[in-house]
Structure to design on (1012 residues):
């Protein structure tokens, strides 16, 4: 396996895709200028507002996703800060129960549905096409549609919060508390439909990443040469496809129907079952945390390889670990329900599966350590964040094993131990790699470098903040403090630890402020990055920073697992793709041999209109069931605009004959 | 770690067990603390060494090591580490499952108690037998928004007892708690005696516990149940069997008729205001089960489910302004003249 990754096979230096009419084959070097001009003309968006709403460029949409998700991260952080202020001392009168309950519900829902999943998918939507060497994602209009639905869903939640109708039943919406009897009003409905919007967006993004990776890889990038980051994104996408429909079924279908048209899925009095919700929710909810975590593993692998100047040790083990984690994560959901009336033997099974999933994660950590050990480790900010990730995640993983042991879980579940644990593993396991990834790829996205010194200061603020904020929470769990309480009595003895945790939250907030200041500074004054500031191994470093609208003037050919390092200074390229219309190269699934040329869709306002129609369906659906019919009807004209032919002659896909 | 245990003080400490169930769990927790500490130490040491090694190579400007020999060595090391992880996980699993079995009891019995050898992972051999300590006491606990109803079971219906927000148990005798919910999901939890048992509408669950030393053990709802989840607590009072029997008999008795004129007027106030719509007082026409039973209200330690100490002043505040003390609570605010309020307080304070 490792030989194949090193590019020892005899391979051509270039692949000439059969002549396309109107695109005279020519040597790339001779006509570089005109090639760029022509591609630019074909792939660019119209200027101004119209171009902004019609764009189907994966980088533009992914960047919007990243910025929007980061805004939600800050909003969720503000909610967290408000909660910490309220809990800083016992019987604090700052925030009453009604607002507090909205805050923790919206904080959890924001961080899970509006920040974590969208931002990791956005990183995939931005970098997967660049890393596999193609011009755009497989279904660019669907991609745009996904972003707009996500934006509408997020806006819906915050409009509700700011008008004091924010959901207050917890991000997990247990029935019957979230049912029609105990949650009158529209708060829970807002939550349920916000989930619907984000699920649509997540599923759409997952489909994009899977199809793009399987059908549009640069020639030579056989499956055993796909970068680990892309593998992580593919595994995450498959998990999205299998996990998200469960919560969509539970919230959009069962819960919304119970609330809107009086069905009795969860109504115990009519033979419904309150425990059914928990199964459905956690069958999504547990894979969810791995959906967030697995892409972060891909980011870590990218950073480790670049900053040690060698490929990550154990490519096969790493890939199989990612896949194994993906599968095993679907067998853990009951460990959120150990205190419910389920049989003991069944519970033990889930302790075992929770222990088992430690193994593939452990193997990956061992592989990174071996890579750092054997590499030339340059401690720029991204690698520092990786080290912080290992420390926090291993520690958080240990607290996870405590929660997975049924008897101990009976004591510490639903206490502050759980927020302590989840923030160790999600901040440590996802936010740290993400900040590392921001420092790593910011130059690629903007063309300028973030300040490394500020990055290190930010790192230490975050690292200290996480420990000062969340270690006391672990201790509060053992001191018996339940979670989701808006206040507590002084004689409980929880005041000191809570105050410390609040200080930690302030440190984290300072770290994030430093990051924002760094970004603001770097956008104007950052050092110009050039195409490849770090000496990276994957294809995104082969194009300019920021990449042009068409990503690559010529599709590169991959001759090894570390595409750029294997190529030396000369990256062979594909010639013959048309330059007078949008065209991408479709390759075979396993070996990435050129297969056909596929005409890529042009910008259109259709996705935005379709998203608005979807928005009408689900937001009006909060109030009346007719909303779904109205929105459904509106969807037809929107889809008509979406699919309207543009007066260009449609062309058959041209199959490429590969000479033996 | 010593610091962390010391800091975890207070009435709901998990690691301060007062009964066998909580003790099993505390032993498992200690075992896992030690194991996790060792694992973290090893991984962090490996991380530090790797960082040092990789950094040294960078400082000296050496090329990364990708030789087949080196890669083979690293492969072996990772295989070894994975094997060690598997062993640790297996030990962890055995410890968790054995403790789980030690906690699992049915009406017929469960594993008997027998101390393991020192240093052995927590847990007990699976021998069947009844929960030791004699005939179990059965109490049905119902979670309600946001208080607790305790119903003591007895073969003689007239000796069944209903009270609220306070669970008296005899030391040394097993208690079979049957949990259920009246409205939404709650969770029964007394950290010093046992872990949680969710109270889910439509399900009845059983939790076995026993207090081995007398004391007051605070319990609190552990499943988010709406507005006043934060103020849904209760006390478990473990007392000697004789004290328990005395308490039980006194609680079985109906309320004594008020003797002084103020208390008599107070009873009239109770019966002619909103109070009677929701509360029961044994021996009077008040028999509603919407709110907590008040037959022996004055004998309880707290008001409003562990929110306030049971004093005359707090009781007055609670009657007049429950929404200020516990916003969202099901009890409405009551407008009473000062005289009526005083009389009502005299009456309620006489319900010993």
């Amino acid at each position: 396996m490792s030989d194949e990754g090193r590019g020892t096979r005899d391979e051509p230096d270039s692949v000439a895709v059969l002549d396309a009419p109107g695109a005279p084959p020519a040597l790339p070097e001779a006509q570089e200028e005109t090639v760029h001009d022509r591609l630019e003309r074909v792939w660019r968006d119209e200027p101004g507002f119209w171009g902004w709403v019609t764009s189907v460029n994966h980088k533009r949409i992914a960047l919007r996703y990243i910025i929007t998700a980061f805004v939600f991260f800050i909003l969720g952080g503000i909610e967290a800060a408000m909660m910490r202020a309220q809990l800083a001392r016992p019987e604090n009168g700052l925030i009453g129960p009604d607002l507090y309950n909205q805050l923790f519900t919206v904080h959890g829902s924001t961080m899970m549905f509006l920040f974590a999943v969208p931002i990791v998918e956005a990183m995939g939507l931005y970098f997967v096409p660049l890393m596999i060497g193609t011009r755009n994602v497989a279904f660019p209009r669907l991609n745009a549609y996904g972003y707009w639905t996500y934006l509408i869903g997020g806006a819906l939640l915050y409009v509700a919060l700011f008008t004091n109708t924010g959901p207050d039943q917890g991000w997990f919406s247990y029935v019957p508390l979230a049912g029609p009897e105990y949650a009158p009003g529209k708060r829970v409905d807002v939550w349920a439909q916000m989930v619907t919007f984000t699920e649509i967006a997540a599923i759409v993004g997952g489909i994009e990443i899977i199809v793009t990776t399987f059908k549009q890889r640069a020639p030579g990038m056989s499956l055993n040469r796909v970068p680990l980051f892309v593998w992580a994104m593919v595994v995450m996408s498959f998990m999205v496809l299998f996990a998200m429909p469960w919560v969509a079924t539970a919230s959009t279908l069962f819960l919304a129907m119970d609330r809107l048209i009086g069905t009795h899925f969860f109504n115990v009095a009519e033979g419904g079952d309150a425990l059914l919700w928990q199964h459905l929710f956690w069958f999504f909810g547990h894979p969810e945390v791995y959906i967030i975590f697995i892409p972060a593993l891909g980011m870590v692998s990218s950073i480790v390889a670049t900053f040690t100047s060698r490929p990550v040790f154990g490519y096969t083990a790493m890939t199989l670990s990612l896949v194994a984690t993906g599968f095993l994560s679907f067998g853990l959901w009951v460990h959120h329900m150990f205190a419910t009336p389920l049989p003991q033997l069944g519970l033990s099974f889930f302790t075992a599966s929770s222990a088992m999933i430690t193994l593939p994660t452990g193997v990956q950590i061992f592989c990174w350590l071996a890579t750092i050990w054997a590499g030339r480790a340059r401690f720029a900010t991204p690698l520092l964040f990786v080290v912080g990730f290992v420390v926090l995640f291993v520690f958080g993983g240990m607290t996870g094993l405590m929660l997975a042991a049924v008897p101990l879980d009976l004591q510490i579940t639903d206490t502050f131990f759980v927020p302590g644990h989840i923030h160790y593993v999600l901040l440590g396991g996802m936010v740290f790699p993400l900040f590392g990834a921001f420092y790593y790829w910011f130059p690629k996205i903007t063309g300028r470098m973030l300040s490394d010194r500020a990055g290190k200061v930010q790192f230490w603020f975050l690292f200290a903040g996480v420990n000062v904020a969340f270690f006391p929470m672990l201790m509060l769990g053992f001191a018996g403090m339940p979670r989701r309480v808006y206040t507590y009595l002084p004689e409980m003895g929880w005041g000191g630890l809570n105050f410390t945790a609040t200080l930690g939250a302030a440190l984290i907030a300072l770290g994030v402020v430093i990051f924002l200041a760094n970004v603001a500074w770097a956008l104007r004054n950052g050092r110009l990055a050039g195409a490849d500031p770090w000496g990276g191994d994957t294809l995104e470093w082969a194009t300019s920073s920021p990449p042009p609208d068409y990503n690559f003037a010529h599709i590169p050919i991959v001759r090894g697992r570390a595409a750029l390092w294997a190529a030396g200074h000369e990256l062979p390229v594909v010639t013959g793709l048309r330059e007078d219309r949008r065209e991408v190269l479709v390759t075979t699934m396993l070996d990435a041999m050129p297969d056909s040329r596929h005409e890529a869709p042009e910008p259109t306002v259709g996705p935005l209109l379709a998203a608005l129609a979807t928005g009408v369906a689900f937001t009006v659906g909060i109030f009346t069931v007719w909303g779904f019919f109205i929105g459904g009807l509106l969807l037809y004209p929107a889809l008509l605009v979406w699919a309207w032919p543009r007066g260009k002659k449609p062309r058959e896909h041209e199959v490429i004959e590969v000479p033996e | 770690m010593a610091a962390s245990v010391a800091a975890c003080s207070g009435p709901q400490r998990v690691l301060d067990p007062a009964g066998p169930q909580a003790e099993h769990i505390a032993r498992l927790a200690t075992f896992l603390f030690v194991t996790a500490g060792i694992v973290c130490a090893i991984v962090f040491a490996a991380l530090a060494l790797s960082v040092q090694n990789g950094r040294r190579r960078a400082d000296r400007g050496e090329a990364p090591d990708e030789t087949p020999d080196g890669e083979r060595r690293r492969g072996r090391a990772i295989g070894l580490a994975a094997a060690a992880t598997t062993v640790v996980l297996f030990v962890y699993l055995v410890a968790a499952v054995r403790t789980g079995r030690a906690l699992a009891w049915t009406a017929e019995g469960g594993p008997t108690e027998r101390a393991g050898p020192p240093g052995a992972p927590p847990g007990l051999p699976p021998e069947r037998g009844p929960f030791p300590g004699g005939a179990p006491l059965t109490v049905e606990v119902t979670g309600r928004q946001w208080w607790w109803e305790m119903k003591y079971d007895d073969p003689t219906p007239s000796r069944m007892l209903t009270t609220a927000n306070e669970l008296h148990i005899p030391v040394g005798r097993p208690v079979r708690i049957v949990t259920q919910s009246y409205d939404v999901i709650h969770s029964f939890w007394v950290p010093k005696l046992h872990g949680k048992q969710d109270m889910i509408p439509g399900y009845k669950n059983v939790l076995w516990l026993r207090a081995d030393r007398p004391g007051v053990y605070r319990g609190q709802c552990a499943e988010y149940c709406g507005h006043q989840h934060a103020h849904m607590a209760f006390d478990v009072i473990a007392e000697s069997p004789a004290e328990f029997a005395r308490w039980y008999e006194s609680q079985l008795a109906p309320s004594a008729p008020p003797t002084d004129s103020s208390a008599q007027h107070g009873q009239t106030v109770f019966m002619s205001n909103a109070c009677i719509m929701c509360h029961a007082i044994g021996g009077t026409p008040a028999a509603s089960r919407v709110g907590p039973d008040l037959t022996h209200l004055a004998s309880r330690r707290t008001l409003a489910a562990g929110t306030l100490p049971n004093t005359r002043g707090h009781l007055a505040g609670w009657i007049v302004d429950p929404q200020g003390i516990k916003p969202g609570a099901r009890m409405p605010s009551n407008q009473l003249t000062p005289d009526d309020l005083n009389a009502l307080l005299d009456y309620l304070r006489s319900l010993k």
User: Anything to note?
Assistant: Chain A has 20 helices and five strands.
